[in-house]
Design brief:
alpha+beta, Ribosomal Protein L25, Chain P, RNA Polymerase Alpha Subunit, Chain A, domain 2, 2 domains, four-stranded mixed β-sheet, 4 helices, 13 strands, 40% strand
Length: 201
């Protein structure tokens, strides 16, 4: 499961571009918390700590407790704007999480036991259609990743969402079709060789 993160914050007295620029000069990143049928809360967080949490690789699918004025607000990061040249975080949007509220998250997919797939051992290629799955989860049980075992799969095999055992408290956000996550395809080199031989014959 993704670990919960804690991010200290301070309330922003002033909004607007000038105030945001001033905050960034002080090593702070402007942010907003919205949702939960409440007015948006404008805050700022320390850039260094935000960068550290972004570096964990699972910031966007973790519950982040924002410590603000002695209170702790449970949120889910929804968007981080980065500077196009320096890659500095410029602004963050957080979604307020209510106690009984399920959250939509994109969770990375990890494939395991590739050495136990006959199709891959014979030179087949794992063609990943979806690197992330859109899930609806309880905030307490957001998985850090979804493991998919490819043991025994041959060239031509497809992995659909129906083949994946999602952890308790999680469900696919897409429910109207059994979508493909990955396929094992023949290597293009083999295909072109087959094409060449057919021309000769």
């Amino acid at each position: 499961m993704s670990e919960a993160l804690t991010l200290p914050a301070e309330a922003r007295e002033r909004a607007g571009k000038g105030a945001s620029r001033e905050l960034r000069r002080q090593g702070r990143v402007p942010a907003v918390i919205y949702g939960g049928n409440e007015e948006p809360t404008v805050i700022h967080v320390e850039e260094k700590e935000l960068r550290r949490q972004l570096g964990t690789g699972h910031f966007m699918n973790s519950v982040v407790s924002i410590e603000l004025g002695g209170a702790s607000l449970r949120t889910l990061p929804k968007d981080v704007a980065f500077h196009p040249v320096t890659d500095r975080p410029l602004h963050v949007d957080f979604l307020r999480i209510a106690a009984d509220h399920k959250v939509h998250v994109d969770v990375p997919v990890v494939f395991t036991n590739e050495e136990a797939s006959p199709g891959l051992k014979r030179g087949g290629v794992l063609n990943v259609v979806r690197h992330e799955l859109e899930l609806v989860c309880d905030p307490e049980s957001i998985p850090a990743e979804i493991e998919i075992d490819v043991t025994g799969l041959e060239v031509g095999a497809s992995i659909h969402i129906s083949h994946v055992a999602l952890p308790a408290g999680s469900a696919s956000a897409i429910t109207d079709r059994d979508f493909t996550i990955a396929t094992i395809v023949a290597p293009s080199a083999l295909k072109s060789e087959e094409g060449d031989t057919s021309k000769e014959g």
